[in-house]
Design goal:
This protein is an all-alpha fold. 67% of the residues lie in helices and 2% in strands. It has a two-stranded antiparallel ribbon. Helix 4 packs across helix 7. The longest helix is centred in the first third of the chain and has 29 residues.
Length: 230
């Protein structure tokens, strides 16, 4: 059964998802910088809880529909892993965890929002779930940077890029065991993305180069951030 659903870039649904994600993210950040620290803690826990609930409910929903499959339904795409990590970091932040969601995690989430590919159908819930999961990664990274004052350490892009390589190896082995395509390491995603160049395995090389460039851009952007006066 074909379940992949593409939201065409610049379509009405695409614009709606982008605009609503930006508005909600902006509202959360603006609210957070205007409330007392104890209320911020509650807000962080609420966002984290939503991230966890979204993934747990999504797993149940796929089982309910009878479409759950070991080769497609585990949350071990880059954004699935980073989404769970983002929820954890909102509860108990670690520097390396923040850096991971702020660089490779945020880069992956941005591209996922620009070229949406839903792997389990395009019903209303799946669309909402997709935007919560991916925009949540970006919101979590910006929340920790803007509201909580976390900053990227010097040359930390090296460690997070190395972590991604280790992750690729682990997920590659999982793909081989499960006959899967997590992180699109077995086959290229069927979306109109200029970063997808060539056939397997060459498109992975371009993924790596483009990924490194994105990590570096985000590294320098976060390094330039100044603390807010509060």
């Amino acid at each position: 059964m074909e379940l992949e659903f593409i939201i065409a870039p610049l379509s009405e649904l695409w614009w709606m998802g982008i605009v609503i994600s930006i508005l909600i993210g902006t509202l959360i950040i603006q609210l957070a910088i205007r409330i007392p620290p104890d209320k911020r803690t509650i807000l962080r826990l609420c966002i984290a809880s939503l991230m966890f609930f979204e993934e747990i409910f999504n797993q149940w929903y796929m089982v309910y529909l009878g479409i759950w499959d070991l080769s497609t339904s585990l949350p071990i795409h880059m954004c699935g892993i980073t989404g769970i990590l983002a929820g954890v970091m909102l509860i108990k932040t670690k520097q390396i965890g923040f850096e991971f969601i702020a660089m490779p995690g945020m880069a992956g989430a941005i591209h996922a929002l620009l070229t949406p590919l839903l792997n389990h159908g395009g019903d209303t819930y799946q669309v909402i779930n997709y935007y919560i999961g991916h925009s949540g990664i970006i919101i979590a990274a910006l929340y920790l940077a803007i509201v909580e004052g976390y900053r990227i350490r010097k040359n930390s892009w090296v460690s997070v890029f190395f972590m991604v390589q280790i992750l690729f190896v682990i997920i590659g082995i999982a793909n081989w065991v499960f006959g899967a395509n997590y992180m699109y390491l077995s086959n290229a995603p069927v979306v109109n993305n200029p970063l997808i160049i060539g056939e397997w395995p060459w498109y992975i090389l371009f993924f790596e180069i483009a990924g490194l460039l994105h990590v570096l851009v985000l590294y320098f952007c976060f390094r330039k951030m100044k603390p807010l006066p509060f």
